[in-house]
Amino acid sequence: MNNNITCNIEQCTKCILDTTVEDICFDQNGVCNYCREYDSVIKTIPYREEAKEVLNQIVKQIKQDGKNKNYDCILGLSGGVDSTYLAYLVVELGLRPLVVHIDTGWNSEIAVQNIENVVNILNLDLHTHVIDWEEMKDLQLAFFKASVPDCDIPQDHVFPALLNKIAKENKIKHIVSGHNIVTEYILPRNWSYDSNDLTHILDIHKRFGKIPLKKYPRYSLFDRMFTYRWIFPVKSHRFLYYVPYNKEEIKKFIQEKLGWRDYGGKHFESRFTKFFQSYYLPTKFGFDKRKAHLSNLIVSNQLTKDSALEELSKKLYDVKELENDKEYICKKLDITLEEWNKIMNLPLKKHQEYKSDYNKLWYKIYQKIRGILKK
C-alpha cells in the first residue's frame, strides 16, 4: 500500500473531481487517480508524425479490405460533435463509409438536422435503423425501477449491437468510432456501468420489465468474444486518437463546414440523455457528469480549472425547462408525475446488485486460460 495516497481530500488539485467519486484517491500533491490514469494512458497514444503514420496505415488497410465493395467502413452518426467531425475526416481520408444512424426515439430536432446536413453536404449514404419504441420504453422504465445510476444503458447497448450486425450483413470489416481520449476518457466508475453487459440488461428487464424484448438488438458476450473477433472479424478504429482534437475549435469548424448546430451539452443530442445526466443522476445519486467532462478538458489542456469551476457553478437546468422536460419524459414513457416521483424516491442500488456477463462460469474459465497463455 502506498502511504502517500489518502482519501480525505475533498477535491483534486488538478481537475474538479471530488469525493462524490467512490474510488477517488489522491497522491501527496493532491492529484487524483483519474488524472494520473489519464497521464499514463495519453503517453501510449501515438503523437504527431507517428500518429499520422498509424492513421495512414489503418486507412490503407480499410481501403484494401473494402476494394470492389460499395462501402469500406461503417460510421455511426448521432449528430453530435465527435461523429460529425469524424464523418468529415473519413471523407477527407478518401474512405467510403456507410453512415448508420440509430434512432432510439429520443432525438432532438437539432440532432436530426445536423445528421441531414452532414450526409447531404458530404454526399454520404445514410442507413437509419429505428428501435422498437415499446420495447425501448419498457426497458428504460425497467432500469429506472431498478434504481441504478446508469439508465442510459438501454440506448448505449444497441449502438455496437447494430453497427456490428450491419457490418456483418454488408461484409464490411471495419467500423470507425468517434470516441476520443481528450474529451471522453475520464468517467468515475461508480457513475456508470458497462453497457455491453447483456446479462445485466436482461436481468433488470426480467425483474422490472412488462413486455418481451423480441426486437431489441443484442450484443452478447459470445458476440464480443467470438462472433465479431473470430467468426466474422470486425475491427473498430478510433480515428480521433490520431488527429489534433480541440473541442471548441472542432465545434467552430463543423459549424462553418457542415452547418452543425450546438445542442447545449455533451451527448445532449438525445433528449433522454440530457434529462438523465442533468436531472436524474445529480438529483438521485449526487453525480454531476459535468465534473467528469470538464475534468477531461482540464487534463487535456483545453480548459483551465477556474473556467471549469465557473462552468460547474451554472445551473444544470432552468426551472421552467426542467418542468417542461420532466413532463415530456413522463408522457413519452407513459407514466404519471406521481409514478416518476416514486422512482426518484426508491432506495439507491448499485449495478453490482444485479446479474452480469462477467460472473458467468465459462467467462471466468476463459479469462484464466487467456491469462495462462499470456505468461
Automatic annotation (TrEMBL):
Domain NAD/GMP synthase residues, every copy: 56-130
Cited Pfam families: NAD_synthase
A GO biological process held by the record: purine nucleotide metabolic process
Gene3D superfamilies noted in UniProt: HUPs
NCBIfam families recorded: WbuX
InterPro entries the record matches: N-acetyl_sugar_amidoTrfase, NAD/GMP_synthase, Rossmann-like_a/b/a_fold
Name this polypeptide is given: Putative LPS biosynthesis protein WbpG
Organism annotation: Aliarcobacter butzleri (strain RM4018) (Arcobacter butzleri)
